[in-house]
Specification:
This protein is mainly alpha-helical. The protein has one domain (2-184). Helix content is 67%, strand content 2%. A two-stranded antiparallel ribbon has the order 1-2. A hairpin with a 5-residue loop joins strand 1 (176-177) and strand 2. It starts with a helix and ends with a strand.
């Protein structure tokens, strides 16, 4: 469970760092979603503040571990899932503002990834896990296999949210052929 929480924390940390450095994208997403306080002059500061919160939560999950940080991660991802769902309803062509230019508009993959990390973190809050550093101490090969797995899960989750929707859209209305030639839905 520590690896899944660490991947979620790492993804949240990366999104937070991007929002701090480039708040315009996050501000545009807040405004498009019609979030109170997320438009006009307040959009960029709100995006930066959101980014700071994401960075802090990500770091605490990675460095401290335990019930409280896992609960914060669960609440963060539940909020992000609700935000992604709202974006799909009120601004379906808007990028989420988390990962920069070139990211796909918010899709069902955003909602799914956020929900999965949220549920995983909630389970982690019920069954507290150690920090990533403490987990490494008990792992073979200095924890390198765990670190690789965490990085791959975080990267795969990033790709699911930012690149897969575009790939599926480029496949056109015919969609992609799945097993036995069955059409794979693109949304």
């Amino acid at each position: 469970m520590t690896g899944i929480l660490a991947a979620g924390a790492l993804l949240l940390l990366a999104a937070g760092l991007y929002k701090i450095r480039h708040p315009a994208a996050g501000g545009a997403a807040l405004a498009a979603a019609r979030i109170p306080g997320g438009s006009g002059w307040a959009a960029k500061p709100a995006a930066r503040l959101t980014g700071v919160g994401e960075v802090v939560i990500g770091l605490v999950v990675l460095l401290v571990g335990g019930r409280g940080p896992a609960l914060l991660l669960a609440l963060s991802y539940a909020t992000l899932a609700a935000f992604a769902w709202r974006m799909r309803v009120v601004a379906p062509e808007q990028e989420c503002g988390c990962f920069g230019a070139g990211a796909s508009p918010v899709s069902g993959w955003h909602v799914a990834v956020n929900l999965l990390f949220g549920v995983s973190a909630a389970i982690g809050a019920l069954h507290p896990t150690p920090s990533l550093r403490a987990e490494f101490a008990g792992q073979p090969l200095l924890g390198i296999p765990l670190l690789v797995a965490v990085l791959l899960l975080a990267w795969s989750s990033y790709l699911l949210m930012t690149q897969l929707p575009t790939l599926l859209r480029l496949a056109g209305p015919a969609g992609l052929a799945g097993p036995a030639g069955r059409k794979v839905e693109t949304t």
